[in-house]
Amino acid sequence: MKICLRYLGDPGYQQGIGQELGVSQATVSRTVDRVVNSIVAQSNGWIKFPTTNYELMEAKRIWQSMYKYFRQQLV
């Protein structure tokens, strides 16, 4: 997980990340692939995008109430 988070946080050269974390480039590549595929496989149960106009407006309202700074730019 640490390898994947490091790569996703600052995607650069896998070899450099591997050297930083003491693993090979191939290990970085396999780890990122496995972790991302695992997240994608479980995403339907955790991530839901609005599909109706009502759901979209409700999501926008909730987001704006949490982040008031951007409200004027979004309306």
Explained architecture:
With 75 residues, this protein is mainly α. It has one domain. It has five helices and no strands. It has helices spanning 2-9, 14-21, 25-46, 53-66, 71-74. Helix 1 (2-9) crosses helix 3 (25-46) and helix 2 crosses helix 3 (25-46). The model has no long low-confidence stretch (mean pLDDT 88).
Q: How does the helix and strand content classify structurally?
A: mainly alpha
Query: DSSP helix count?
Result: 5
What portion of residues belong to β-strands?
under 5%
- Number of structural domains: 1
Question: How are the secondary structure elements laid out?
Answer:
Elements: H1 2-9, H2 14-21, H3 25-46, H4 53-66, H5 71-74
Helix pairs in contact: 1-3, 2-3
Defining key terms:
single chain, mainly alpha, 75% helix
Quick summary of this structure?
This protein is an all-alpha fold and 75 residues long. It is built from 5 helices and no strands. Helix 1 crosses helix 3.
